[in-house]
Design a protein that fits this description.
The chain is α/β, with parallel strands linked by helices and 446 residues long. It has two domains: 2-29 and 286-433, Lyase, Ornithine Decarboxylase, Chain A, domain 1 (Beta Barrel), CATH 2.40.37.10; 31-284, TIM Barrel, CATH 3.20.20.10. Helices cover 29% and strands 23% of the residues. A hairpin with an 8-residue loop joins strand 14 and strand 15 (359-367). Helix 5 (108-117) crosses helix 6. The longest helix is centred in the middle third of the chain and has 22 residues, at 207-228. The protein is globular. Bound molecules: pyridoxal-5'-phosphate (PLP). Pyridoxal-5'-phosphate binds at residues 58, 60-61, 79, 102, 199, 202, 239-242, 279-283. InterPro entries: Ala_racemase/Decarboxylase_C (IPR009006), De-COase2_C (IPR022643), De-COase2_CS (IPR022657), De-COase2_N (IPR022644), Orn/DAP/Arg_de-COase (IPR000183), PLP-binding_barrel (IPR029066).
């Protein structure tokens, strides 16, 4: 999120009472930023190819209906991987023709529903293909169908997010004994298999390795079409995975860089013989989300200053449990939402949960936080505050979209008015009780 827009939004959150002692943690989404990322994605591919491209947003990155609706309005579809994600995409109005189902554990009922709706499905493995055989034979379907392959090109810097390792759980492992032959044979025997899918990266995977994975899938599609003797595979789904810069407000790498790299290294991808699907998630949303929290208390422990806030493991689960892989920036504002300046002091920024490791930042140099200050945690728009972790029965915070009105002097929002809209209401205590067996209080004592 542009820092000027963020500063205005922080100030307005305090002024307009969004963030208050009674509501000490909220999450913000920068509507204009999300639109800009969607436009950057679309234009990056349009600059290198004329072929039709469905950019299916990976719903797991930000499973929020208003986000899916906004992205759909911006021309994007949805990549879903569970019945819940499919329900969100449908609630947002994303049509089946713009929806892709990829999950490693689809049940027969999920597959049947997807085929009835005409949603594209990528089979994760050959057993799933057997299930598709039966469904395709039993009723006609408009669903484009494909297989996910793992090109086994190797890992990035975060093991848990590296999908193309030798032993990854996803897709058919192409370099395993006999696997490539089995995949080619599967297409030969099933004229309705018209797509090939790979998703080779996520945070920590270098662009060159992602492109190498796409190149492997392309080469396989060419081999299959040659073997079959016609253009049976007409669409390649190249997955998502563009990494995000969590160290500054700079948005790098860009979609344009990745699209150019693909055009250079896999030119055939764009020459008109294949339609394309992409599945970006993190890179569309991460930079446009910010958590705001009030500093409830400050203290020192062993000489270390600690600011105790309301943003911790429930919102930034990966950061708290794996701080080295998922560092987040922490920005200091005063109680009125003005950026704190002044000398940096090494301090810890803690969350509210009752375990010692619930720290958003450890030994971080930033202006000394005081009681009542506001802390902003940028780059949290994907895989973060929309992925609540119910530790200590901490509530899901409210999520608000915001826009900044242009101030008309051409200076770009110097004193723009900030307008908030509710994306998701904060979870109530009654909801927490209900979701924690409140209706079954006697279940274990009867
Ligand atoms: C998670 C996932 C994506 C999105 O990955 P990002 O790193 O968020 O871009 C795309 N496709 C599949 C199959 C995924 O599992």
């Amino acid at each position: 999120m542009a820092s000027s827009r963020r500063d205005l939004a922080v100030r307005a959150s305090v002024d307009q009472g969004l963030l208050s002692p009674a509501e000490p943690v909220v999450a913000l989404l920068d509507t204009a930023g999300i639109r800009a990322s969607a436009a950057a994605l679309t234009s990056a591919f349009a600059a290198v190819t004329d072929v039709p491209v469905l950019h299916a947003f990976a719903v797991k990155a930000a499973p929020l209906v208003p986000v899916l609706r906004l992205l759909h309005e911006a021309g994007l579809g949805a990549e879903v991987a569970s019945p819940g994600e499919l329900a969100l995409a449908r609630a947002a109005g994303v049509p089946p023709t713009d929806t892709v189902l990829d999950s490693p554990a689809k049940t027969p009922a999920e597959l049947r529903q997807a085929l009835a709706l005409g949603i594209a499905v990528n089979a994760d493995n050959l057993q799933e293909l057997d299930r598709l055989d039966a469904l395709v034979a039993s009723a006609p379907t408009a669903s484009p169908l494909g297989i996910r392959v793992n090109p086994q090109v190797g890992a990035g810097s975060i093991g848990a997010l590296s999908t193309a390792t030798a032993t990854s759980k996803f897709g058919v492992a192409l370099r395993d004994e006999g696997a490539r032959k089995a995949v080619v044979q599967a297409y030969l025997e099933r004229p309705w298999l018209t797509r090939l899918h790979t998703h080779t990266g996520s945070q920590g995977v270098p662009l060159a390795l992602m492109a190498e994975g796409v190149g492997e899938a392309y080469a396989l599609a060419e081999e299959i079409n040659r073997t079959v003797g016609r253009q049976q595979i007409d669409t390649l789904d190249i997955g998502g995975g563009l990494p995000v810069n969590f160290h500054s407000d700079e948005e790098t790498p860009t979609y344009a860089e990745y699209a150019r790299l693909l055009a250079d290294t896999v030119p055939g991808l764009f020459d008109g013989r294949y339609g394309l699907v992409t599945e970006f998630g993190r890179s569309l949303l991460a930079k446009h989300g910010t958590v705001l929290t009030r500093v409830e208390y400050t203290k020192t422990s062993g000489g270390r200053p600690i600011a105790v806030t309301h943003a911790g493991v429930q919102l930034a689960t990966r950061t708290v449990y794996a701080p080295d892989a998922w560092p987040l920036r922490v920005l200091a504002y005063d109680s009125e939402g003005r950026r704190r300046t002044g000398e940096d002091t090494v301090q810890d920024v803690a969350g509210p949960a009752c375990f010692a490791g619930d720290l958003l930042a450890t030994g971080r140099a930033l202006p000394l936080l005081r009681q009542g200050d506001v802390v902003a945690v940028p780059d949290t728009g994907a895989y973060c505050f929309a992925h609540h972790y119910a530790y200590n029965s901490l509530p899901r915070p409210g999520i608000h979209g915001f826009t900044v009105a242009e101030d008309g002097d051409g200076g770009g929002g110097g004193d723009g008015v900030v307008t908030f809209t509710t994306v998701r209401k904060p979870q109530t205590l009654a909801e927490i009780v209900a979701e924690s067996g409140g209706a079954h209080a006697d279940a274990l004592v009867g």
